[in-house]
């Protein structure tokens, strides 16, 4: 398995724009999970533990501006879109989400593969078994093994839902460009297929 991860990361490079998107999306996922767990943290110890991990991922914008490093170019989209409420993530968290994106990217290359099998389930397995994703996760989450595994599963699920929604949109767009029939009588739509998978 490590050989597959090494070849995957070596063969798949992300452009500057593709690296800015995981930074923005990671902040969105962290912030939405933090908000949902903060509502329950008073009565639930697990939710309180998840809140402490998720809140530790936040980095204020003043720190970002002062500490310019080799990953500061990835924050441009967040800085551009921020009007004061966005969740700015730390570099280690960005590296974890970038590793997930690099692992997913080879599987999201062709729209034809999308219709043949349960892509969500396959991608979940790939991400959970990926050694580079596991290493990234261990560097940002310091919970016991059970709670850590559950939180990782929730984050992977949210990441895949966002990525597959964007992938379905691009497949629909490519079909429209090719003037193919986007829907035949009796055939499920791409979104319905994605939802049922």
Which terms would index this structure?
197 residues; mainly alpha; disordered N terminus
Major beta-sheet overview: none
* Tally of DSSP helical segments: 11
Would you list the SSEs in sequence order as H and E? HHHHHHHHHHH
Q: Name the poorly predicted regions.
A: 1-11, 61-66
Task: Explain how this protein is built.
The chain is mostly helical and 197 residues long. The chain has one domain. It has helices at 2-11, 16-38, 45-56, 61-66, 76-81, 91-104, 111-114, 119-129, 131-140, 145-177, 190-196. The longest helix has 33 residues, at 145-177. It starts with a helix and ends with a helix. The relative contact order is 0.13.
Summarize the structure.
With 197 residues, the chain is mainly α. The chain has one domain. 69% of the residues lie in helices and 0% in strands.
Give the topology, please.
Layout (H helix, E strand, L loop, with lengths): L1 H10 L4 H23 L6 H12 L4 H6 L9 H6 L9 H14 L6 H4 L4 H11 L1 H10 L4 H33 L12 H7 L1
Helix pairs in contact: 2-3, 2-6, 6-9, 8-10
